[in-house]
Design goal:
Layout lengths: L9 H7 L15 H13 L7 H26 L4 H5 L8 H8 L6 H18 L2
């Protein structure tokens, strides 16, 4: 998605890294796929603050898209928090390592990432 948004900068990828496991494993937080995607939406619609009307439109678009993404994600998967989605408690010793080793993330986290990417493309296609 970063190429589609012309955000080809590794700094942006690193900025999203703390969102894994909620926010660095603090699972009460939203799923990292949601957090990273709403940041991406903000970056996608960034503009100079000197153009007040454009800023107003951009903020409206960002708010609407982010809200729709969160609502649709919750409807699709039943929750938006990492703990609620996975049913695991990463604060327990060894739980995160067990999760990684099990490969269950391929059926969960990858599905969530795919979903938000598809939603971001839907938002882009609305503009055309």
């Amino acid at each position: 998605m970063w190429e589609a948004y012309d955000l080809v900068n590794e700094d942006f990828l690193w900025a999203g890294a703390p969102f894994m496991g909620g926010i660095s494993g603090e699972q009460q937080a939203p799923c990292g796929a949601i957090s990273a995607s709403v940041v991406s939406i903000g970056l996608r619609h960034r503009c100079s603050f000197s153009d007040k009307e454009k800023v107003k439109q951009a903020r409206n678009t960002v708010r609407n898209h982010a809200g729709k993404l969160v609502r649709d994600f919750a409807k699709q998967f039943g929750d938006i928090t990492c703990r609620g989605l996975l049913g695991l408690d990463f604060s327990k010793p060894g739980e995160y390592q067990k999760f990684l080793g099990s490969g269950v993330w391929k059926d969960t986290c990858e599905k969530y990432v795919q979903y938000v990417i598809e939603k971001l493309y839907e938002f882009e296609n609305e503009k055309t």
